[in-house]
């Protein structure tokens, strides 16, 4: 179905502080639009569980049909 909304959330302490440019977010956004998303919200956040929870909740409340979460180090204690 064309015209759906997506979201991309990248978790990275360093990228969120501007120490380097996130590269995964734009690739995921491009993939979503190539598969019919008419709008994609993209953000880079520090590695904090509460930030992730709030961002996913916000994306769903704004109507995201699909939410991608990406991060550089994988699952960890934080």
Radius of gyration: 12 Å
Assembly of the depicted chains: single chain
Largest β sheet strand count, sense and barrel closure: 3 strands, parallel
Number of strands: 3
Q: Portion of residues in helices?
A: 25-40%
Structural class category? alpha/beta
State the low-pLDDT regions, or none.
none
Order of helices and strands: EHHEHE
Distance between the termini: 36 Å
**Given the structure, what is the number of helices?**
3
Q: Give the strand order, joined by hyphens, for the main sheet.
A: 2-1-3
Question: Globular, elongated, flat, extended or rod-shaped: what is the shape?
Answer: globular
Q: Percent of residues in beta strands?
A: 25-35%
Average pLDDT number? 90
Report on the architecture of this protein.
- The structure is a single chain.
- With 78 residues, the protein is α/β, with parallel strands linked by helices.
- Helix content is 36%, strand content 29%.
- The protein has three helices and three strands.
- It has helices spanning 13-16, 24-34, 49-61; strands at 4-11, 37-45, 66-71.
- It has a three-stranded parallel beta sheet with strand order 2-1-3, sandwiched between helices.
- The radius of gyration is 12 Å and the shape is globular.
- The mean pLDDT is 90.
């Amino acid at each position: 179905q064309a015209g759906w909304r997506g979201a991309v959330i990248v978790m990275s302490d360093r990228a969120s502080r501007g120490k380097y440019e996130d590269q995964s977010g734009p690739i995921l956004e491009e993939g979503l639009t190539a598969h019919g998303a008419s709008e994609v919200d993209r953000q880079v956040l520090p590695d904090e569980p509460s930030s992730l929870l709030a961002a996913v909740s916000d994306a769903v409340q704004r109507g995201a049909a699909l939410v991608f979460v990406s991060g550089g180090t994988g699952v960890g204690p934080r």
